[in-house]
Amino acid sequence: MNNDIDLKTKLDALEKLRNGAWEEWNNRRTYEWKMSIGIWTALTSFIALVLTGRVQIPLNCCYWVFAIIVIVIMFSLHCYFITNLTKSNRIDRKKQFSHEAAIREILKIDYDAELQGEIDNRIKKSSIHPVLDWSGIVQISVTFLLLIVAFYVVYLRTL
Questions:
Q1: pLDDT of 62-78, one tens digit each?
Q2: Which of 17, 33, 36, 65 is the most buried (most CB within 10 A)?
Q3: Domain presence at residue 2
């Protein structure tokens, strides 16, 4: 940063940048879950309609090929969506941590060693793979399980 900028201005700018990264992360996380809940609602509605007999399942091969294609596409799109959201979330979190670290450095405020170790460990674990965070794993797992249940319910109705 330019040395001509006073300390308060630097701190205010860093706080705005940190807060902006936090808001981007938090807003994205909100529609990430809304999208997943929407998919889950559609799948559970379909399962309920099949179980109650309101949807008739044809017994031909074309239907099964179509059903498998739909399941693969739906799961792939959800994985793609979650993976890319996770990548963006990770960038925003790193920006947030970076701006916070700059603020703490200016103010000469350090975390105690134990807390800093936990923070560093969490950041390290969260950057192993773009989809391997708890949120992505939960959402993709629930979608996968509901797709399996939907497929199984359809299979049962054709017996």
A1: 888 888 898 999 999 99
A2: 36
A3: no
